[in-house]
């Protein structure tokens, strides 16, 4: 078992770290305080090949691997987690086209997604379900050479400015199928964007489908059987979210150390206090455990053997640990930890969000237990 990154992976990690520190820091206030997405960042992400890291260069990708993907996620999230979420969606939607799309669809969508010229949102969650595909109410009715879609999707990231959407819907036989719906089609609309606790600037809204007619060829990967496609997409999502939490934890530890070194108590920095030592030690230990669990998940994905159980274990442990680590970082800051003048309060708000994305912690536990040997 090799725990060392390759020279290429280390070089890529350093490049993304420098990019994040230089280019993302100036847009923190735009996203967190104004809850707006900075679209000027999209061509910069594209220039770094961040929208299609593990995909074939002939479709605009970087031709790299999933370990490199999580390394990039970690570095981006360390500076500004909402942009890592945005980047994740680029990679996840590219993955769906890569695995289910026709050659024409791959070229029509993967290349412009990787170039930062198109945004495609991923639509599964609905008002009455967020984890159980059997409860999906959105329908796709076959009508001649077209499908007609009706329904509402909820909490959809990038929806307010998406050029198209990948929609999970029930077909005439009650099977789950995946459809490509362009945002300019009649009957396609989005509701007002959500004002939320953390990960601000990631624009979420409902996607509303009111008799939206699409050509039959917009059915991706054939009819039915897309529960497996959903599970596959979720494995990537859980892995990416875990990597982002590692970035948040690293940022929290960095902020806690910096504050403790400069905060004086009786003419001594609080860094010298045993109570602070214990908090920092816990933060560092949990961070390292989370980091290597996440890297393992990415390695398993690259080897083609990563399972839902592997990713659920990773997501459960890492996202819950991120909340603890960021909370301990706030404790180091004392009363200043709740002040918006300090980065730590934003890190804590963002960390809490990850326990709820791609399935709550309770859902992860169910996924794990159902797959335990018995």
UniProtKB/TrEMBL annotation:
GO terms for molecular function: acyl-CoA dehydrogenase activity; flavin adenine dinucleotide binding. Residues 6-117 form the Acyl-CoA dehydrogenase/oxidase N-terminal domain. Coiled coil: none annotated. Residues 121-212 form the Acyl-CoA oxidase/dehydrogenase middle domain. Gene3D superfamilies: Acyl-CoA dehydrogenase/oxidase, N-terminal domain, Butyryl-CoA Dehydrogenase, subunit A, domain 2, Butyryl-CoA Dehydrogenase, subunit A, domain 3. Its cofactor is FAD. Residues 228-372 form the Acyl-CoA dehydrogenase/oxidase C-terminal domain. Pfam families: Acyl-CoA_dh_1, Acyl-CoA_dh_M, Acyl-CoA_dh_N. Keywords: FAD, Flavoprotein, Oxidoreductase. The keyword Isomerase does not apply. PANTHER family: ACYL-COA DEHYDROGENASE, ISOVALERYL-COA DEHYDROGENASE, MITOCHONDRIAL-RELATED. Belongs to the acyl-CoA dehydrogenase family. This is Acyl-CoA dehydrogenase. It comes from candidate division TA06 bacterium. The lineage of its organism: Bacteria, Bacteria division TA06.
């Amino acid at each position: 078992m090799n725990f060392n990154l390759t020279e290429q992976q280390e070089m890529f990690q350093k490049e993304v770290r420098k990019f994040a520190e230089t280019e993302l820091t100036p847009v923190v206030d735009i996203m967190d305080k104004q809850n707006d997405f900075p679209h000027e960042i999209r061509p910069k992400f594209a220039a770094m090949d961040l929208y299609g890291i593990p995909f074939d260069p002939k479709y605009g990708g970087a031709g790299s691997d999933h370990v490199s993907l999580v390394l990039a996620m970690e570095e981006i999230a360390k500076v500004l987690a909402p942009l890592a979420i945005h980047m994740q969606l680029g990679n996840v939607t590219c993955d769906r086209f890569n695995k289910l799309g026709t050659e024409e669809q791959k070229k029509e969508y993967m290349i412009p997604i990787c170039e930062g010229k198109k945004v495609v949102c991923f639509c599964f969650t609905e008002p009455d379900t967020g984890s159980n595909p059997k409860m999906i109410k959105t329908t796709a009715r076959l009508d001649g050479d077209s499908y007609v879609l009706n329904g509402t999707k909820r909490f959809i990231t990038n929806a307010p400015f998406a050029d198209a959407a990948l929609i999970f819907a029930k077909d005439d036989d009650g099977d789950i199928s995946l459809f490509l719906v362009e945002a300019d089609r009649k009957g396609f609309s989005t509701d007002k964007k959500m004002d939320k606790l953390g990960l601000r600037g990631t624009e979420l809204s409902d996607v509303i489908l009111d008799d939206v007619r699409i050509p039959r060829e917009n059915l991706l990967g054939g009819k039915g059987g897309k529960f497996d496609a959903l599970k596959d997409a979720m494995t990537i999502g859980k892995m990416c979210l875990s990597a982002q939490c590692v970035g948040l934890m690293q940022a929290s530890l960095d902020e806690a150390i910096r504050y403790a070194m400069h905060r004086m108590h009786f003419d001594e920095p609080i860094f010298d206090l045993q109570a602070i030592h214990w908090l920092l030690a816990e933060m560092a230990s949990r961070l390292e455990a989370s980091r290597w669990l996440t890297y393992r998940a990415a390695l398993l994905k690259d080897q083609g053997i990563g399972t839902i159980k592997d990713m659920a274990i990773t997501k459960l442990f890492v996202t819950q640990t991120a909340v603890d680590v960021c909370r301990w970082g706030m404790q180091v800051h004392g009363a200043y930890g709740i002040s918006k003048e300090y980065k730590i309060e934003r890190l804590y708000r963002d960390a809490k969000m990850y326990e709820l994305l791609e399935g709550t912690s309770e859902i992860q536990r169910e996924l794990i237990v159902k797959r335990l040997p018995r």
